[in-house]
Amino acid sequence: MAAAETQVVEAHGARIPLVGLGTWDLRGRTCARVVEQALRLGYRHVDTAEMYDNEREVGEGLRASGVKRDQVFITTKIWPSHFAPRELERSAKESLVRLRLSEVDLLLLHWPNPNIPLSETLPALCKLKRMGLARHIGVSNFTVALIEEAVKIAAEPLVCDQIEMHVFLDQSKVVAACRRHGMAVVAYSPIARGGVKNDQVLARIGKPHGRSAVQVSLRFLVQQGIVVIPRTSRVERLSENLAIFDFALSDAEMAEIATLAHRGGRVVNYSYSGSPKWD
Ligand SMILES: NC(=O)c1ccc[n+]([C@@H]2O[C@H](COP(=O)([O-])OP(=O)(O)OC[C@H]3O[C@@H](n4cnc5c(N)ncnc54)[C@H](OP(=O)(O)O)[C@@H]3O)[C@@H](O)[C@H]2O)c1
Questions:
Q1: Which of 150, 173, 151, 154 is nearest to 163 (CA)?
Q2: Residue 217: C-alpha distances to residues 61, 139, 200, 229, 265 (Å)
Q3: CA–CA gap between residue 171 and residue 163 (Å, rounded)
Q4: Does the C-beta of 237 come closer than 6 Å to ligand 1?
Q5: Can you give the pLDDT at residue 217?
Q6: At residue 278, what are phi and psi to the nearest 5 degrees?
Q7: Closest ligand 1 atom to the C-alpha of 188?
Q8: Rounded distance between C-alpha atoms, residue 92 and residue 104, angstroms
Q9: What phi and psi, each to the nearest 5 degrees, are found at residue 46?
Q10: Which of 134, 182, 231, 245 is the most core-located residue (most Cβ within 10 A)?
């Protein structure tokens, strides 16, 4: 099997590494150090956002790693209070200044904003791509209905929807909508904020493979072509979360893991300013 850094999902010309480092809640020196170490270990994808207040440190970690800029896929996201067209451009430029980059690989709308029509925000986002601020654009936390609306409006391809996705949550409707439109699915909170760690089914399935419950839960997603962006503040866990490309789950194991999804499995219960609720 190919090394972790060479495994990508392709969507409308974007080549998104299947594993990325999540950085929500990583701050200051810890953030810079974890990003640097992750890249040294073979990660080639880092996920940040204007809202995480760590873009500066993500950029520092990137430069300290010595990995060439064109070898790393960097995603950032614009916060919904900045979705009016002028604000969107200003926010994207400020993110680039903090990251000290001339462009990001992927620029996302972080959450839907019910107070600003997509017909205003999406053309502005497409313009940012044409201006060269982002190589690719996409959305996050969009429902099926919003995906359908967005793809009709956007003049440039939307390459992904970044959504909460892990073994405890069935996201098959959103995944199907993304696939219909050639969009990648990026799974956030892919280990349910650590919740998969003590799951007995995952631990049992991992045993004959010599893998932890966390590794099994990540493998379950990447084996379906879903991008995962687990976060850790601990350097020793970075390798564990990346070592998911040298074993495979059988069809029976995949089917058993799929039974873990249940109502109420969501771990992120936030929604921006009354943005549409999930089904
Ligand atoms: N678009 C959005 O609205 C959105 C929303 C939420 C998250 N995200 C993105 O998705 C990323 C990941 O999601 P998340 O941070 O919510 O949760 P997550 O990655 O599912 O879980 C992170 C938690 O798991 C623990 N952990 C990590 N690796 C582990 C391992 N190998 N064994 C045991 N525990 C482990 C971490 O603790 P330690 O630090 O102690 O290892 C941390 O508490 C975020 O960082 C962010 O980049 C996006």
A1: 173
A2: 27, 24, 12, 12, 14
A3: 9
A4: yes
A5: 98
A6: -75, 160
A7: 10
A8: 9
A9: -130, 135
A10: 134
Radius of gyration of the chain (CA): 18
Q: Is 230 touching ligand 1 by the criterion CB < 6 Å?
A: yes
Ligand 1 geometric centre to CA of 130 (Å): 32
User: In this predicted model, what pLDDT tens digit does every residue of 121-153 receive, in sequence order?
Assistant: 999 999 999 999 999 999 999 999 999 999 999
Report phi then psi at 11, rounded to 5: -150, 115
Answer yes or no: is pLDDT of 2 > 80. Answer: no
Q: Is position 52 annotated as part of the catalytic site?
A: yes
What dihedral angle (degrees, nearest 10) is formed by the CA atoms of 78, 233, 19, 254?
-120
> Closest Cα to residue 42, out of 15, 7, 10, 76?
7
State the average pLDDT over residues 154-174.
98
Residue 164 CA to ligand 1 centre (angstroms): 11
Structure tokens at 192: 């349910």
